[in-house]
Design goal:
Number of helices: 14
Distance between the termini: 21 Å
Largest sheet: 8 strands, mixed
Structural class: alpha/beta
Amino acid sequence: MMGACRSIRSSSTVEQSASSVHLADGASVAYASAGAGPPLLLIGGWLSHLELSWALSAERSFLEALAVGRTLVRYDRLGCGLSDRPPNAKWSLETEREALRSVMSRFAGSTFDIMGSSLGVPIAIDWAARHPETVNRLILYGGWARGADISTPQARDHVVGLVRSHWGLGSDVLTEIFAPDASAATRAAISDYQRAASSAETAADLLTACYEIDVTACLEQVAAPTLVLHRTDDRAAPREQSQLIASRIAGARSVELPGRSHLPYVGDAGALVEEIRRFLGLPALRRTVSPGLTRRQREVAELVSQGLTNRDIAQRLGIDERSAEGHVERIRNTLGFRSRTQVAAWWVSSETRN
């Protein structure tokens, strides 16, 4: 549903169970676990909702793929999703650390593989630098170390103000940034998800935190083996930030993948999962072409992989050349690719894994 170009399925359905922990002030933080094996803690981005994310087919496929061979642990930060939403509460890194500590304590005696996504990246870096004894491996996707560098002050003020005063329009604008490759229906679903995950005030507060957080001083203190992942044309997080992170963490491995979408499950989610599972020493999962492409688009993608031009494709399928061109363009947008070569490579890879 959510626009991932390849789904990654295990042979059995993964189920999620939810619970909660309490912070020192009594506030409740919801967390969920899925799968079996050593724990993999996912520190999510800006907003989250444990139940709604699990109900979205593409995001669930992405999460299930992480949970095969691992116990995937996630949580809703205060103000979001199933966690308490204290009135007038302001986000702080100190409160986030307390939430992390409390959730991790439910898995007593465990050390964690930790993955941060988006805002979760600087949070994961901060934790790994402060508590190296708790971290086995660190995976950082689509994030930054210095929030002030991800946008101009004018753009930041405009977006935060829009979210605070017009949450409906603000969520739509941010969805265009986060998931440009998604269909109109998918973008509408993401916007609805964001509005259900938090209030306008909390969303604006957390968005401000994205721009204000700075963990550059922590980078050289990270000791865990680290994988830094980034999509080359991510519209929410500039690739220069991932390059900064990889250059400052000793021994970090950096992998850049094609694509524009910031959300990990939109675009080529399969390639992202492959890199993550390889880094964790887990076997690859079977890939299938998801319903993100229509039957006709899959036919066109196969012909592109055979080196056919738009005119050739039109003749083969009995359509006009302009229609063939439109199909190729929509395929590239759905998959987050810029060239026919990428489409061809994707099709060949998908077919050889089925």
